[in-house]
Design goal:
single chain, mainly beta, 1 helix, 19 strands
């Protein structure tokens, strides 16, 4: 197909509550005053993990039980299905040619966590998919097996007070404005800038919070390389109106390249290995550095996140193979408008370019841009959303682009996702 036509529909509704009371008559002034109404119980709060975007929310009444010596544990999770259609399909992580459409279980995960006391922990287990712009769709079973396994996130946390904490295990990345799993984000697919970032790393992380400042620093294995030579961190300042400014950075502190295989040669796509998967070593992103500057702004029914990104990949020699150097740089704006508490429209526009001899996008020195729209509905634990996206390659190299022959310069994709966040 040469184009995909999506009908994006959103409805709006408004509700008004009218309160009325009766004044006491003068001749009733001597009567005993009515008993004061009992104060409202505090509203339940969603579990802290996973962090969610501005369109979907965790279930605030997730199941909780007393685990004896472990204390109170919370169990929450997600089950979602996904369908997609696309033109110019490419090859997935296993080198298999995508179809022009398909369906999949995009998330089937449960999380058990302890969120109070000095000793805390999070364990998230199940299957998941990482649909991303400009990359072929890989099924959840293959993604789970090829990347982070059936327990993508699991760590212990020592929190002696509200200011300091220490985490160790398989940790979500500190880098970027978009989270790994579909339901954590305002769009079904992750963006072109996200494709450059690590997703999940194994290591230790120190957290500090004081007033409007929050900071985290981690020693880890970067792009899940198995070599614990990367340092990442972020600093967040929260303004009085709730807006935040975030600076994050990550980089390899060693010149010794890991020998864990083609997955470690991945220069882009969150460790995916480039637009055509693990089959071609495209560079050494895990040896380089990446930086983001992110601003989160909320105003009434709007939530807007503009951010900038820069990455540097040094030239590296692996077993006599010279991996060339390169750089990527780009910017994006993510936005959400809420028509009602249940209905919203999210969008994302971004541009990214590269320079140098490394293939960080669609060939050395390539650039691309994208546009995404995602109408979303959530009522309680149930949600549904549709999405239309477009990626255009401004400058690329035949052999690293879209389509079975890797020579197409654009891709349209339509998706639908729905399920429960319990």
């Amino acid at each position: 197909m040469t184009t995909l036509k999506l009908w994006l529909c959103a409805g709006s509704a408004a509700m008004t509550l009218v309160f009325a009371g009766a004044a006491a008559a003068d001749d009733q002034a001597s009567a005993p005053p009515p008993a004061a109404a009992a104060p409202d119980a505090p509203a339940p709060t969603p579990p802290p993990y996973p962090a969610m975007g501005p369109t979907l929310s965790n279930n605030p009444t997730s199941a909780a039980f007393d685990a004896g010596p472990l204390g109170k544990l919370t169990v929450n999770g997600v089950v979602t299905g996904l369908g997609y259609v696309q033109d110019n399909p490419g090859f997935d992580l296993d080198g298999r040619l995508n179809k022009t459409g398909g369906i999949d279980l995009s998330n089937g995960m449960a999380t058990i966590q302890k969120t109070d006391g000095v000793f805390q922990f999070v364990v998230q287990a199940g299957v998941y998919a990482f649909p991303a712009l400009g990359t072929p769709y890989t099924s959840s079973t293959r993604t789970t097996g090829d990347l982070f396994g059936a327990v993508p996130v699991g760590y212990v946390k020592i929190a002696p007070n509200s200011t300091f904490s220490l985490e160790a295990g398989q940790l979500p990345t500190l880098i970027g404005a978009e989270a790994p799993f579909t339901y954590q984000n305002m769009n079904i697919e992750r963006g072109l800038l996200w494709n450059q970032e690590p997703l999940i790393s194994r290591g230790v992380q120190f957290n500090f919070t004081k007033g409007p400042w929050a900071a985290s620093v981690s020693w880890n294995d970067g792009y899940y390389t198995g070599s614990y030579t990367s340092i990442s961190g972020n600093v967040t300042y929260t303004f009085k109106n709730g807006d935040t400014l975030v600076f994050d950075a990550a980089g390899n502190a060693s010149s010794n390249f890991s020998t864990c295989g083609l997955k470690c040669l991945a220069p882009a796509l969150g460790g995916f290995g480039g637009p055509i998967g693990f089959t071609v070593p495209l560079g050494g992103q895990s040896q380089g550095q990446i930086f983001n500057l992110i601003f989160n702004h909320s105003w009434g029914k709007w939530a807007i996140t503009p951010y900038l990104q820069y990455s540097n990949v040094p030239s590296t020699v692996v077993g006599g193979l010279v991996l060339p150097s390169g750089r990527s740089y780009g910017g994006a704006v993510l936005a959400k408008y809420s028509f009602t508490p249940q209905i919203s429209l999210a969008g994302r526009v971004e541009w990214i370019g590269s320079s140098g001899a490394a293939n960080l996008l669609y060939g050395p020195g390539s650039n691309a841009w994208s546009l995404t729209l995602t109408p979303t509905y959530q009522k309680g634990v149930f949600f549904a959303r549709i999405e239309g996206s477009y990626v255009g390659i401004g400058s690329g190299t035949v052999g690293a682009e879209f389509g079975p022959a890797l020579n197409k310069t654009q891709q349209f994709r339509g998706l639908i996702e729905g399920g429960v966040i319990f």
